[in-house]
Amino acid sequence: MLADGDRVLVAVSGGIDSLVLAWVLAVWRKKAPIDYEVLAVHVDMEAGSDAPGPAASLVGGMVEAMGLPVRILPALWRPDPHSLQPDTRAGHDLCFRCARSRRTQLFAFARESGCTKIAFGHHRDDIIETFLLNLTCAGNISTMAPRQDLFSGRLTLIRPLAYLDKTEIETIGSELGMQPVRSSCPLAEQTSRAEMHRLAEHIYRQIPGAKANIFAALGNVRHDYLLKQTGVRRP
Predict the structure, then answer these.
(1) What does the alpha-carbon distance between residue 235 and residue 233 come to, in Å, rounded to a whole number?
(2) Domain membership of residue 197 as a residue range
(3) What is the CATH number of the domain that holds 129?
(4) How many domains are there within the chain?
(5) Which residue, 37, 54, 64, 198, is most buried by CB atoms nearer than 10 A?
(6) Per-residue pLDDT tens for 141-189?
(7) Phi/psi of residue 119, each to 5°?
């Protein structure tokens, strides 16, 4: 995922996953057989007119304590509080728009700052839940890859924690004394992704070994046993 001379933008939301990822990249840089730079970036959803929001200030302080440079970017788009409607299609669409805006902003900043890679803190549970989300809500079989080249290879997304469970990351964070910064979004626990998390946990309780088997299946696709596109519309 990393190569000599890389300049890596690590997206730090303040959750335990992104904080542990920033720490891993900082520590590995000291002993890796290659040389790379790391720049932490936080998109501030609560920025004031002349100062970062409280969550951004906390995140910035924790990242700086790791010895990494950090940039706080005021979000280019923030949802209207009056449009936040839990458990509705409008609310789910809003989450998608917000996430897309933040990612577009990160892409643009990476290009402007000469970063060749963007590191996200997604883990094995995220990858499985994205598969379930795409399967049930988007009508396709896909998920997030540990490495994904974009824009003809000019930018690469990497997910160094892709093969770790959420619980393993939480254990690392706890041992390091990290305190995650809770999202201020009122829809944080009421999104389609949260529903997929609950579905996945139900499957794991009902079927021993299901998590390992689902994750293995994502790299063991038998194309000859899949349906061909017929042009039939989904109901």
Answers:
(1) 6
(2) 7-221
(3) 3.40.50.620
(4) 1
(5) 37
(6) 999 999 999 999 999 999 999 999 999 999 999 999 999 998 766 556 5
(7) -105, 130
Instruction: Tell me how far CA of residue 15 lies from CA of 35, 178, 184, 224, in angstroms.
Output: 27, 10, 12, 40
3-state secondary structure the chain: CCCCCCEEEEECCCCHHHHHHHHHHHHHHHHCCCCCEEEEEEEECCCCCCCCCHHHHHHHHHHHHCCCCEEEEECCCCCCHHHCCCCCHHHHHHHHHHHHHHHHHHHHHHHHCCCCEEECCCCHHHHHHHHHHHHHHHCCCCCCCCEEEEHHHCEEEECCCCCCCHHHHHHHHHHCCCCCCCCCCCCCCCCHHHHHHHHHHHHHHHCCCHHHHHHHHCCCCCHHHCCCCCCCCCC
Q: Which two tokens stand for residue 175?
A: 């041992």
CA-CA distance, 135 to 173, in Å (whole number)? 31
Structural domain contains residue 227: no
Q: Give the pLDDT of residue 207.
A: 98
